[in-house]
Amino acid sequence: MDMILIKILAAFLALSQVTTRPDAIKTEFDPARDVAEVTQVLRNGCGHFRKALDVESIDIDDLIKTAMDDPNAFTAEIKSLHGLKIESMVQIYRQFCKNENVKDSPVDLGEVIRFYDQAMTDLPDQARLKGMRSAGAGGVLDAKGERFADLSENNRRVWVPLSGIPVHLQKAFIAAEDKRFYEHKGVDERGLIRAMIANLARSGRPQGGSTITQQVVKNLLVGNDVTYERKMREVVVASRLERTLTKAEILETYLNTIYLGRGAYGIELAAKTYFGKPAASLSLAEGAMLAGLTKGPGYYSPDKHPDRARDRLAYVVARLQEDGEPGATALDPAKSGLPQMVAYDRAASRDSGYYFIDHVTREARSVAGVPSLALAGTTVRTTIRPDLQQAAEAALQEGLAQYEMRNGRVEWRRAEANLGEAIRRIEATGNKSKPAWQQALIAAHPPLYDVHWTTAVVLGTGAERNDRNGGGLRVGLADGRVLPVSSAVRRGIRLHDVVFVKETEARGKQAARLELRVRPVVQGAAIILDNKTGGILAMAGGFSYPLSQLNRATQSQRQPGSSLKPFTYLAALRRGLQPNTLVRDQEVTLPPINGSGFARHRDYWSPKNADGYGGGITTLRRGLENSKNLVTANLLDGGIDNDPTQSLARVCELTIDAMVYKDCVAYYPFVLGAQPARLIDMAAFYAAVANEGRRPAPYGIESIEQNGRPVYAHKPEFKWLGSGDRPAFYQLKTMLQGVVARGTGRAISQLSPYVGGKTGTSDDANDTWFVGFTNDVTVGVWVGYDNADGRRRTLGGSQTGAKVAVPIFSEIIQATWAKYARQAPLNPPSPEAKKELLALQIDLASGTRLGERRQQKGFTEYFRVRDGQVEDTQYAIVSQGEVGSPDEGYYGGGGYAYRDGRSYFPGGWTE
């Protein structure tokens, strides 16, 4: 049976019950036993609808004849009917409406019943709407319990009782949306028929035929998915709602929750937004205009499409005149036009956290089982820290801009706006309270409302003939100052353009100055997790939410590069190797992986270091600190397991255990971060390192309440990784601290007592990472190009996580210390880990334990203890004979040297 016919008949089964037996609606039938009952329900429904057709003076047989004359015309304009065969519908009509025996019927009622049963599963409880008027608007609360946002900016409303809404205003909405509101029982079959005929008769915006009750259910309970399943659920719940709430309660709920454009939900806020007064003071014309917006606030917007809004107003007025509403006869929108409105202030109610709010909405559906947070009276308590959120966004935005400026990649496309026309209008009014450019700038609201730079208006480009200021770019700020701007952009900037600038602080004799900022093409993401709970303290999913709603912290997978290497080292530590174990930093060729199924995986693998050279022999610690690809590859060949493929499998198992991947691609470059991963998952793993293996599950919602009733509370989720091997994780933590102290993250070496982390750079510098942790938080940063436009753009051959991502991390971590948790040295091993660890002095370069050879100050290394003894694995992979003796004056094969009591390692000689 065609799926389109299954859906149509299942939907008609729901409609038939709602209209013929509303008190006995069944939401589950047996596909075998209940065929006869379903047949009778469909026949009863068809009979009921034929009577409604007669009332509307529609000849169904004539309609069918017309459709058969041109079947394509019948279905072409209605997406929900695409693929429908009219011949099949005629057979169904004969079978269920004329009770004829149809040979070779296209109907299998068993399939229809199964589809219907599935669609009716877990219907929402309409009783949730009872008394919601006293619950207030709800909203998103931050970690301190303070209001952070209205729910996705679409729950902004002020509830007023129906008694506070004028009767003429109520009638305007009823006339516009549901003329038979007080007559039907939730679903108006006559309205559905009129909408269907209207849709067949003309093109343009389709009519839905939904009642006010159905719209309440759609907006607050079942969602607005454009599917047969949603419509079926809607009509059943609407019928039940009519038996739970009175008509007055339904209308009051509708008028207080309907979206009317300009960011306003509900009649009270809409009245203030459009007309600057409460709903109780609206005239009939003003109310009729608002009522007309319900059909499509964007399509009929009086701000964007005044002609459409006027036509829609005329329609509502005509309906009111038909109903004999006093005062409607005096209205003539064709002559008077739209009512006078107040200016629309498009300023966003907040300037940060939009990616986080999107994430919370998805989390509510997937984890909490709450399909919509737009329900009035819904309060969501979250983990977000607004101060950290702003800091993370600002650091990411500035870091992306700095990358483009350093590398000559700034691309000027256009200004954020141009205020030339607005300035001329202000000048024409004669208002000289402030300069016209300043008034225009204050009133302007550039589209990128979450960018944390300062907006300014260009007052001089240097190209003007009367420029007496040396020919430089000058801008005006909202506070009235006019200042020069330094800029690498030389072309394209026009007089009165709105641009972004960043003000540098005055230092000594150097005055404060402005620098131009151009929205970057490169993208990035940043996230801050609380290590103890997994709570998301801040999340920036891109440069700016209005530019792109893709959350690159949670919805993108990118190659993590060397930031994945800690898994290989963890596998080695868990096997029993120590941080001072000597490993070859030399060329290695690993054999093919059999049975992979991919031709490219059957080749031998010979990786290279980033600089193209090997370093001879080095320690496990120094291999990770300096992110040596060859060390990582050599660990697969005898360092973790004697079989490289088994070593690869051990690393893969750890990544799956850490929930970074669900499965691994079986090829060697995997250990170098070739398989894409999500930033949020990588951050959770590094939080586990900070916690000695205890991985917190990232989350954004603490609790959800609806009408004061708890419907969800977060239960902390933690997982011990690597069988809870605390000593191995602590050793890894100290090695990652070394990455910051003297390795690839040494640009922030001054932070090394307090921070551990790892850089990451994928092949061709498509992706750069830094994920780092303190005792309290983990911060993850990714930077790269989306490459969604078909162009393959890299960050540049010399760009690395250390150069691009680390500076952004540094700004964010400083903010966490200033606003959230104190700056403190990384914790020593826990009592549980300390039982299996012993701190000894070693030579950092060679890994040799100093107390056994000569008395001198060295580096403190933590060794795993087994059965009360330190297991000496320094030469477990590389023999002492291969290394040589430090007493010979030169130690090793190029990886390090030892001379005159000083050790050499990349970066210089050191004591």
Beta-sheet strand percentage? 5-15%
- Taking pLDDT < 50 over at least 5 consecutive residues as the criterion, the unreliable ranges are 199-206, 595-599, 887-911
Principal-axis shape: globular
Radius of gyration using CA atoms only: 34 Å
**What class would the helix/strand composition place it in?**
alpha+beta
- The neighbouring-strand order within the major sheet is 2-1-3-15-16
Number of continuous helical runs? 28
Quaternary structure of the protein: single chain
The biggest beta sheet is recorded as: 5 strands, mixed
Could you give the distance between the termini? 82 Å
User: What average pLDDT do the residues reach?
Assistant: 86
Number of strands: 26
- The helicity comes to 25-40%
SSE layout:
Elements: H1 3-20, H2 35-55, H3 60-69, H4 71-76, H5 86-96, H6 109-119, E1 139-141, E2 147-149, H7 167-177, H8 189-201, H9 212-222, H10 228-241, H11 247-257, H12 267-275, H13 284-293, H14 306-322, H15 333-336, H16 354-366, E3 378-382, H17 386-406, E4 417-418, H18 420-429, H19 436-443, E5 454-460, E6 474-476, E7 482-486, E8 497-504, E9 513-517, E10 523-530, E11 536-540, H20 566-575, E12 582-585, E13 616-619, H21 620-625, H22 629-639, H23 644-657, H24 679-690, E14 694-696, E15 701-706, E16 709-713, E17 718-720, H25 726-742, E18 756-761, E19 767-773, E20 777-784, H26 801-819, H27 831-834, E21 837-842, E22 859-866, E23 869-870, H28 880-883, E24 897-899, E25 902-905, E26 908-910
Parallel strand pairs: 1-3, 7-9
Antiparallel strand pairs: 1-2, 3-15, 4-8, 5-6, 5-8, 6-7, 8-9, 10-11, 10-20, 12-13, 14-17, 15-16, 18-19, 19-20, 21-22, 22-23, 24-25, 25-26
Helix pairs in contact: 1-2, 1-6, 1-10, 7-13, 7-14, 9-10, 9-11, 13-14, 17-26, 18-19, 20-22, 20-23, 20-25, 22-23
